[in-house]
Amino acid sequence: MGVLAVAVGTGAMAAAPQTILPGYWSSTNRTTFIVSKVTEDKRCITSAQVASYITGPTNRHYHCTYDHRDVGKSTVKLSGVCIDKGGISYDVRVDGEYGPEWFKLRAHFSLSGLPIGGVATTEAHRLSAICPADAPGSEKKAAAPPPQPRPDDKAATPAP
Questions:
Q1: Residue 5 and residue 48: Cα distance in Å, rounded?
Q2: Distance (Å, rounded) from C-alpha 24 to C-alpha 58?
Q3: Number of domains in the chain
Q4: Integer-rounded Cα radius of gyration of the chain
Q5: What SS3 class is residue 155?
Q6: Which domain holds residue 87?
Q7: Which three-class secondary structure state does DSSP give residue 154?
Q8: Residue 108 lies in a domain
């Protein structure tokens, strides 16, 4: 999921930091790079993952490092470099807005050193505070099925 989260600094009044909330999230992701592609994703975002979603977005396709981060007051501005699984490097600039139960991000990317690039957007909202046990990213794991007896197992072979 192109899902991002925010750790926002506290003000002089010592207000609690505002972040996106953990839970079960849905996102629509649009990418335009030569051709356009739209995907939808539902996943669990845990408390431990919340801060990294806005301040350092990375996904299973890219590993990104951001040399500029400006996150707070419900806005996000990032710039840096992402490298895909094949080792291709992209310059990336991200801007967006967020609230506790939603976010919208827009990334402009280009092949490093070349005038070839595209745009990716993610719009996401929280579906619920509780994640289904089988949701991607859920901390709960399904129980393993009980072991089945092997055909050569003496306990499984009836007595003559």
A1: 11
A2: 19
A3: 1
A4: 21
A5: helix
A6: 1-127
A7: helix
A8: yes
Read off the pLDDT of residues 132-142 as tens digits, 9 standing for 90 and up: 988 877 654 33
CA distance 118 to 109: 5
| Contact of 142 with 134, CB cutoff 8 Å | yes
CA 147 to chain centre: 35
Q: Where are the beta strands (DSSP E) in the chain?
A: 23-33, 35-45, 62-72, 75-84, 89-99, 102-111, 117-128
Question: For the segment 39-97, what is each residue's pLDDT rounded down to a tens digit?
Answer: 999 999 998 888 777 776 667 778 889 999 998 889 999 999 999 899 999 999 999 99
- Is position 156 within any domain? no
Would you say residue 154 lies in a domain?
no
Q: Quick check: is 113 in a domain?
A: yes
Rounded Cα gap, residues 144 and 146, in angstroms? 6
